[in-house]
Specification:
Mean pLDDT: 89
Number of helices: 19
Largest sheet: 4 strands, antiparallel
Strand content: 15-25%
Structural class: alpha+beta
Low-confidence stretches: none
Radius of gyration: 27 Å
Number of strands: 15
Helix content: 40-55%
Strand order of the largest sheet: 10-11-7-12
Shape: globular
Distance between the termini: 28 Å
Length: about 500
């Protein structure tokens, strides 16, 4: 836990919080059942989502009624056997103790006006700070931001929120009707994209997570709740599903899908072009800062239009002219609204990553922006690829020449964006350290020396299952990344110690 303020928490309370936000006390539903709700009622409620999913499957695959009933009966029995079983005394004692511990922590936080939040780095770490300071920085972030504009005030009542939402829905439907009248979309599209006011819709909300540097200086980072029930979700998802396969095939030669894809392509290049990976070969990286948050909508839409009129793409989308796709994308961006602290805001730059389409539009923009660099790469037959807002390449000419290309590329960026570059014999990229050791490619897993060691990632749900899967994925990544057996063994030991330091048993690690 990162402690940024004096507090009166006991050693036991701090020890409990050091387990991180992912930790869940054992036998949670058994403890809940000791209140006014019985254990059977809780289990029935927990079973309901599973029953709904089973009903969907039975309907989809036309399962025989008798088999369906037997299967549901067996599932219900297994569920009851798992959750209605009584707790061992030792576990019950521990669960009750931790419940009291949580209540005492909540009491101290409220009394001393402290805030406890998970950190913005998506690791399993709490930040403890002053409530007033955190709120002040959050409010200042919104007030000083050039990415949002205020569109209305909500007094907190349900009626006021629904009125704001109603106005947004009317605006979106009106814009769709205009596109239909201009014959950019047909009647089927109009029906599909128009928003039914009876749907259970709500605006996403903005919240903040703390971020600290090596001096424990706290800043706040914005996050947005789910867009699942947003008015623009359905249209954004449609456009994403329409364009993403086209862009993937169009850009796959210069795109890394993930860290494993990057390392596989780099090792293939090194193995099959040894005459191009020389002792004097440099490795370089670039990163576009605040790409998703600050890029102008005009830049995104211009790049989208260039992509759509490309001869390799034109006419491959579903009965929609390229002007219609640009207009529909404009509609999504201009109606991207959210709430914060009793007010409604609209994005005037950028877009959150949890909205379908955001990452795709940014990738289309960068694909067009990187063309001069790709031309140089092709001429020199060196290795190049990009993952989201980061790029990696090898370089056999003078460093000054590559730096000049980078400088020219930065000048071509949207005015709101900045680029950081690094050129040398060794760099880190996608959690890998890559070094040219006199013509030999050396790679291993990279750990930031500033970050706290032995941390596990934050798990939104089912932490034990998530961490088991992550452990397996991290071991596979170590096998891909480490060019020496000694480095792999060191990384394996680091991973095992990380789990042991976070309260997992040796049996869990060795499973």
């Amino acid at each position: 836990m990162i402690q940024d303020t004096p507090h009166r928490l006991s050693r036991e309370q701090v020890k409990f919080l050091n387990r991180g936000p992912t930790y869940v006390s054992p036998c949670h539903i058994h403890i809940l059942s000791k209140s006014s709700i019985t254990l059977a009622q809780i289990v029935t409620k927990q079973m309901a989502p599973l029953q709904r999913e089973l009903t969907k499957l039975f309907t989809k695959y036309s399962v025989d009624l008798s088999r369906q009933m037997n299967f549901e009966k067996d599932i219900q029995q297994s569920f009851n056997d798992s959750f209605l079983r009584s707790m061992p005394d030792v576990l019950e004692e521990r669960a009750l103790y931790e419940k009291q511990l949580i209540q005492s922590i909540q009491y101290h936080l409220k009394k001393d006006q402290l805030i406890l939040r998970r950190t913005a780095d998506e690791m399993n770490t709490y930040y403890l700070g002053r409530f007033d300071e955190f709120n002040q920085k959050s409010d200042e972030y919104v007030e000083n931001s050039t990415c949002y504009e205020l569109i209305g005030t909500i007094d907190g009542t349900h009626t006021e929120q629904q009125q704001q939402l109603h106005e947004i829905i009317i605006s979106i439907n009106s814009q769709l009707e205009k596109l239909y009248q201009r014959k950019l979309i047909n009647k089927d599209h109009l029906t599909k994209f128009s928003i039914d006011k009876r749907l259970n819709l709500k605006l996403p909300y903005l919240y903040f997570l703390p971020e600290t540097n090596e001096d424990v200086h706290m800043s706040v980072q914005p996050r947005f709740s789910s867009y699942q029930h947003s008015p623009i979700q359905r249209l954004a998802q449609y456009l994403d599903q329409l364009l993403r396969p086209l862009f993937y095939h169009f850009s796959r030669s210069t795109t890394f899908l993930n860290s494993g894809d990057f390392m596989q392509k780099l090792q293939h290049y090194y193995t099959h072009t040894t005459n191009l990976f020389l002792p004097e070969t440099h490795v370089a990286t670039f990163k576009i800062h605040d790409l998703y948050a600050k890029i102008s909508h005009t830049a995104l839409l211009d790049a989208l239009h260039i992509f759509l009129v490309n001869p390799l793409i034109t006419g491959r989308y579903q009965r929609l002219p390229d002007d219609a796709i640009v207009e529909l994308t404009t509609l999504v961006l201009k109606n991207n609204t959210f709430t914060y602290n009793g007010k409604a805001y609209r994005f005037i730059k950028g877009s959150p990553l949890n909205l379908p389409l955001t990452e795709l539009l940014a990738s289309i923009y960068l694909h067009h922006w990187q063309v001069p660099l790709v031309r140089n790469v092709c001429v020199r037959d060196v290795f190049y690829g990009r993952y989201n807002d980061m790029g990696f390449l090898t370089w056999n000419a003078f460093i000054e020449e590559l730096q000049k290309i980078f400088d020219e590329l930065e000048q071509e960026l949207d005015s709101n964006l900045q680029m950081a570059t690094f050129i040398g014999s060794g760099v880190h990229f996608l959690h890998a350290f890559i070094e040219n050791q006199k013509g030999r490619l050396y790679t291993r897993v990279y750990h930031d020396s500033i970050s706290q060691p032995f941390l596990l990632p934050y798990a939104h749900s089912h932490p034990r299952l998530f961490h088991r899967q992550w452990f397996r994925a991290a071991l596979i990544r170590a096998g891909q990344y480490c060019s020496s057996f000694e480095d792999f063994e060191e990384e394996r030991l680091y991973l095992e110690l990380s789990f042991l330091a976070n309260g997992y048993s040796l049996d869990f690690v060795e499973y």
